[in-house]
């Protein structure tokens, strides 16, 4: 009986493993992308940061400026990600038993 149940669920398990793998790769790519964009932004603004520091701006205010810009980009990315996740929620609901399409814990 265990073999029968395992064979019946094999295709679904494979699909879930594939979706999980793609999700993890997407998360890794997003993290690397945000880091690269922030690094590029800081490099482009190095002269501005130097002038601000020369005029007496503290490290805290310069760091806050950089983080504010980064959090703005992150907010845009999270918003787009949530919209895409809501659009793909039917796929999630079809692969998981007893999960509603807009289940908050699944979307999280």
Describe this structure in words.
By secondary structure, the protein is mainly α. It is elongated, with a radius of gyration of 22 Å. It is built from five helices and no strands. Helix content is 85%, strand content 0%. It starts with a helix and ends with a helix. The mean pLDDT is 85.
What's the SSE blueprint?
Layout: H1 2-44, H2 46-54, H3 59-87, H4 89-95, H5 104-107
Overall pLDDT metric: 85
Q: DSSP helix count?
A: 5
- Terminus-to-terminus distance: 35 Å
> What is the string of helix and strand elements?
HHHHH
Kindly state the number of beta strands: 0
Structural class: mainly alpha
Percent in strands? under 5%
Radius of gyration: 22 Å
Apparent shape: elongated
Low-confidence stretches: none
Helix share, percent: over 70%
**Major sheet size, sense and barrel closure:** none
Structure keywords:
108 residues; 5 helices; 0% strand; elongated; mainly alpha
TL;DR?
The chain is built from five helices and no strands.
